[in-house]
Design brief:
Elements lengths: L2 H26 E2 L7 E3 L4 E6 L3 H9 L6 E5 L4 E5 L10 E3 L3 E6 L11 E3 L2 E3 L4 E2 L5 E2 L3 H7 L6 E6 L8 E6 L5 E7 L10 H6 L1 E3 L3 E3 L2 H10 L3 E7 L7 E11 L8 E6 L20 E2 L13 H5 L3 E2 L7 E2 L19 E2 L8 E7 L1
Antiparallel strand pairs: 1-7, 2-6, 3-5, 4-5, 4-7, 8-9, 10-11, 12-13, 13-14, 14-16, 14-24, 15-16, 17-18, 17-24, 18-19, 20-21, 22-23
Helix pairs in contact: 1-2
C-alpha cells in the first residue's frame, strides 16, 4: 500500500472515529433548555482536566459512573467532571463566561463513598458529608452541621484542611459535634504514657481516649476552635462544670507540639477556675520519657503522673493525672487530676474541641 493510500485510510478511520464520538455525544448528552447561561459551581466538580472540545470532555465523562454532567470552558479547553446536576431553579449554578453545560440524558443522582439515596437525598456514613457524600468532614462540628445530628457517639473518619491524610476520631454529635481529645473516668486507667503514645493517641478501658498530638495539631491549625474542659463533680447530669478556652492552637512536631494559643473565656465557663493554660503558652508538650520543659530537673510528667504542657512551675492543672475519686476534697497528691484552684477531686474529666 502506497503512502498516499495509508494516509487516506488513516484519514477515513479518523473521520469514522469522529462520527462515532459525535453520534455518541448527541445520543448520550443533552444541554438543558433552562438556565442556558449557567454551569455548576466548582464545589460539585470532582475532576478538572484539559480537553480539545466539549465532545472529548463528554466522552471522558461517559466512561465514569460518578460523572453525571460536564462543564466546559470553550476558550481555555478546561473540562470539569461533575458528580452533580444543575437544579431546575439553577440555585447551584454560576455564570461562567464562554462555558457550556451538558448532562447525561439518563443521569440519576448518585451517592458516593457507600452513601445511600433516600427520598432523593444522600445519607452518608463513616464521616462522609456533602450533597453526594463527596467529602470527609473536617471535624465533628462540621459533621453535625452537615449530616449527623441524630447520632450520639461514634468513630468517624475526618480530614482537616491541609492534613496529609484522613484519620479517625471519636465524635459526640448529640451536643453539636464534639471532637473528643481526652476522656478519663476510671481509676484503673493510668495516663503516664510514652512520648510515642501521646503523639499517636491511644484508647483505654471502655470510655477512655487520648486523641494524639499529631491529630490535635492538624485540628487546631485548620480553623478557630474552642477547647472545652468538663470536670465531673457528682454522679448526675448536672454534676459537670465546663471551662472554655477559645482560639486553641498548638504547633507541629518540630516544636514538640508547643502550645501557641488558648484564651480563657470566663463568661462562657461554668466555674471560677484558674487560667491554667495562659502561663503555659510557648511550652512544649512533655511525657515521662521526653521531658521538654525548659527548666530541667523538675520531672513534671513523673511528678504529675501524665503528659501535658509544663513550664518552670510545672502546671496549675493536671488533667492527665490519676483519678482518686475521693468524692470530696482534694487528696493532696501531686499526681491526682486537678484544675486549680478547685478544691474538690473530680470523678472524671472530659476535654473536647468544638466550633
Amino acid at each position: 500500500m502506497s503512502t498516499l493510500n495509508v494516509l487516506k485510510f488513516l484519514l477515513a478511520l479518523y473521520c469514522c472515529f469522529r462520527i462515532i464520538i459525535c453520534h455518541s455525544f448527541y445520543e448520550d448528552f443533552i444541554r438543558p433548555d433552562f438556565c442556558t447561561d449557567k454551569v455548576l459551581t466548582s464545589l460539585e466538580s470532582y475532576l478538572t482536566l484539559e480537553a480539545g472540545s466539549v465532545i472529548q470532555c463528554a466522552a471522558i465523562c461517559s466512561l465514569d459512573t460518578y460523572c453525571l454532567s460536564v462543564s466546559f470552558m470553550l476558550k481555555e479547553g478546561k473540562c470539569f467532571l461533575n458528580f452533580g446536576l444543575l437544579a431546575d431553579d439553577c440555585g447551584n449554578g454560576v455564570n461562567l463566561a464562554d462555558s457550556v453545560y451538558f448532562k447525561k440524558k439518563k443521569a440519576v443522582k448518585t451517592c458516593m463513598n457507600n452513601g445511600t439515596l433516600v427520598n432523593n437525598d444522600c445519607v452518608c456514613y463513616g464521616g462522609y458529608v456533602g450533597t453526594y457524600c463527596d467529602r470527609l468532614m473536617t471535624d465533628c462540628s462540621d459533621g453535625y452541621r452537615e449530616m449527623y445530628q441524630d447520632v450520639i457517639t461514634g468513630s468517624y473518619e475526618i480530614l482537616p484542611p491541609g492534613a496529609p491524610q484522613s484519620f479517625t476520631v471519636t465524635c459526640v454529635m448529640k451536643h453539636g459535634g464534639r471532637t473528643d481529645i481526652l476522656r478519663h473516668f476510671k481509676t484503673v486507667d493510668k495516663l503516664n504514657r510514652t512520648w510515642a503514645e501521646y503523639v499517636d493517641g491511644f484508647h483505654y478501658g471502655q470510655r477512655g481516649t487520648w486523641i494524639g498530638l499529631e491529630k490535635l495539631y492538624w485540628l487546631s491549625r485548620s480553623k478557630t476552635l474552642d477547647l472545652i474542659i468538663s470536670l465531673e463533680k457528682i454522679k448526675a447530669n448536672s454534676g459537670y462544670f465546663k471551662i472554655v478556652y477559645e482560639n486553641f492552637e498548638i504547633g507541629d512536631s518540630s516544636t514538640n507540639y508547643q502550645l501557641l494559643s488558648a484564651q480563657l473565656n470566663r463568661a462562657r465557663s461554668e466555674i471560677n477556675a484558674t487560667d491554667c493554660l495562659s502561663d503555659l503558652i510557648g511550652s512544649s508538650f512533655s511525657s515521662y520519657d521526653m521531658d521538654n520543659n525548659q527548666v530541667q530537673g523538675l520531672g513534671c510528667p513523673a511528678k504529675y503522673g501524665g503528659g501535658w504542657w509544663y513550664n518552670g512551675a510545672c502546671a496549675q492543672c493536671n488533667p492527665t493525672g490519676n483519678l482518686y475519686q475521693s468524692g470530696g476534697a482534694r487528696t493532696g497528691n501531686d499526681d491526682e487530676v486537678f484544675w486549680g484552684p478547685i478544691d474538690w477531686s473530680p470523678l472524671g474529666i472530659n476535654i473536647w474541641l468544638q466550633n
